[in-house]
Write a structure and sequence with these properties.
The protein has about 220 residues and is α/β, with parallel strands linked by helices. It has 2 domains: about 35 residues; about 170 residues, Vaccinia Virus protein VP39 (Rossmann fold), CATH 3.40.50. It has a 7-stranded mixed β-sheet. Helix 6 links the parallel strand 2 and strand 3.
Length: about 220
């Protein structure tokens, strides 16, 4: 069980006789239950709107795309389909286990245009320059954001784009996800410091920012 949930349950036991604390604890657990249900893979398409995201990305068929922090490939394989057989997508992860899982899934689905890349926390290690570098719920994991994205320019074509989807500032009852969110203004400021300009901002996602940057 998640340590934060367990800690909250222990606090509930300690405060069973205090009405105010009971209410707060119930709200805390309710928020966790909401998060666990809403972020589950079965419900994700409702709020993630992957088809809309792919449409807004306007990916050309012959593009080279990187999916930084690809996870299990939620967007990787959707983008691979949009690219067609002549385009390439490089899902990027920092652990061999994730790379193995992505390779197995690509083999199972017959996606020869999915080429996983094992990177480090400081370098994406991409094999060529990209038309699009895509991040979904990855931005908050990056240390030294300005330095990282400044270095990322070497992997971006002169007319290339960086698309960032990230949990926005959430209501107080979802404070448990605070460390997993970044406001649009913070992203814009940090990307500007890294040498990028904002070229598109979409407001179609209910709980996430969707920002697209390019080089000046």
């Amino acid at each position: 069980m998640n340590s934060k949930i367990q800690e909250s349950m222990n606090n509930i036991k300690k405060s069973e006789g205090e009405p105010g604390k009971r209410t707060c604890n119930k709200l805390f657990l309710a928020s966790w239950l909401f998060i666990l249900v809403a972020l589950s893979s079965g419900c994700r398409s409702i709020w993630q709107k992957p088809d809309m995201v792919i449409e807004k990305l306007q990916i050309a068929k012959l593009s080279r795309v990187a999916d930084l922090g690809a996870g299990r490939g939620y967007f990787t394989f959707r983008i691979a389909e949009a690219l067609g057989p002549e385009g390439l997508i490089y899902p990027v992860e920092i652990t061999p286990g994730q790379i193995s899982r992505l390779n197995r899934r690509a083999d199972r689905l017959g996606r020869k245009n999915v080429l996983p890349v094992l990177a480090t926390t400081t370098d994406a290690s991409l094999p060529e320059k990209m038309d699009l570098i895509f991040l979904c719920n990855t931005y908050h994991h990056i240390d030294n954001v300005t330095t990282y994205f400044s270095n990322l320019k070497k992997y971006l074509k002169s007319n290339g784009r960086i698309a960032i989807i990230e949990l926005d500032d959430l209501p107080w009852y979802l404070f448990t996800l605070h460390s997993h969110q970044t406001s649009a203004e913070t992203i814009k400021k940090e990307m500007h410091q890294a040498g990028y300009i904002l070229i598109e901002e979409h407001n179609n996602l209910p709980v996430q920012n969707f920002l697209i940057f390019g080089l000046p």
